[in-house]
Amino acid sequence: MLLAGASSGAYSTKAISTGDTAWVLISAALVMLMTPAVGFFYGGMVTSKNVVSVIKQSLLILGIVSIQWIILGYSLVFGNDIGGIIGGLNFFGLSGVGYAPNPNYAGTIPQLAFMIFQAMFAIISPALIIGAFVERIRFRTLVLFVILWTTLVYDPIAHWVWGTGGWLHNLGALDFAGGTVVHISAGFSGLAAAVVVGRRRTYQKGQPIPSNNVPFVLLGAALLWFGWFGFNAGSALGASPVAVNAFVVTNTAAAAAALTWMVLSWAEHKKPSAMATATGAVCGLVAITPASGFVSPVASIAIGIIAGLVTYLMLLFRSKKTSIDDTLDVWAAHGMGGVVGALLTGIFAEKIINSAGHNGLLFGNPAQFWTQILAVAVTIVYSFGLTFILLKLLSPLGLRVSSKEEAQGLDMAVHGEEGYRL
């Protein structure tokens, strides 16, 4: 029966590693924490009359995608391959997903554990996008957008890269924990959303949004840094040496990028900005994500520094040279950070670190770099293009709130709840 729950199926308890299972469940919890952490990170950056709406949107996405993933998303990503493009519906409603491992993905943990770990990746991806259109998005349209984007953008890309039979997977594209699947897709979707939804009515080119709560930003960044150990090291899907390496390089790249942003902000503004340091750490975490299971600690320092420099310059370019109101710079941080990380994976990857991977350009395999370029390009075009189309199709419903509601702030206009009573 459909409502009978996931079937445990026939399985051998000897096939289950309690250590691997414990690590994946802990990692799933760490990644879950990252979605409300995004809410705090973004919520501290917006004006005080919109802080509740941003955190609320993060929690809303946690609820929506949790259900979508159970019913449909998991099957579309990890179900039986259809032409390298999408998974079938054999896992619809988690049919047959239970205690028995799925040897195609994780042979030492229950498939149900693998499913919930992957659910957290699907959840955080659309949560990253909201930074591009904060303070003006219509709530009902956001609900529909999240459902459609997750199903039509995230799920196919995740199958291409991670699904058995996915066409980018078959080409050998490396993405250990979501540089293309999560960050490039969300970053370039955010750019498309900023273009279609349009600028805030108070937008001034080159002027940053007046942040209402810097401690919230720092708290969000710290929780993201903490949760990212589950994001990256958990993607080893076991308590293994690869997980250890991913843990170490994740911390190292974040540190390198945080210091890079701090120095750059110090040079530009004559003061070492706390927000810049926190944002730099997140950019480093983004960049190391695709590489974390394949590169050495020293390489991760290079990745953090390069990503810090590129993302900082891209933020300045977007802010000063364009009129696009990507309000919290989702494109610069996640889109371009993901691009840098995915490309550098093709340079620094070492098969000796992970036998399931490939050597990169510096280790005698220039073909891997070209494969990474292809994966990046395809992800950019698909995520930007389809997000643009989806929002255009949703525009008759109204993409943004009224001028009066925007002026009042979404906390009171939409939710009837104030963030602060001073």
Molecular structure report:
This protein has helices spanning 18-45, 51-78, 111-129, 139-162, 167-171, 179-197, 214-233, 241-269, 274-288, 297-321, 330-348, 366-394, 403-408, 410-415, and strands at 81-82, 86-87. It is mainly α and 422 residues long. It has a single domain (2-390), classed as Ammonium transporter fold (Orthogonal Bundle). The chain has a two-stranded antiparallel sheet with strand order 1-2. A hairpin with a 3-residue loop joins strand 1 and strand 2. Helix 1 runs parallel beside helix 3, helix 6 packs antiparallel against helix 11 (330-348) and helix 11 runs antiparallel to helix 12 (366-394). The model has no long low-confidence stretch (mean pLDDT 95).
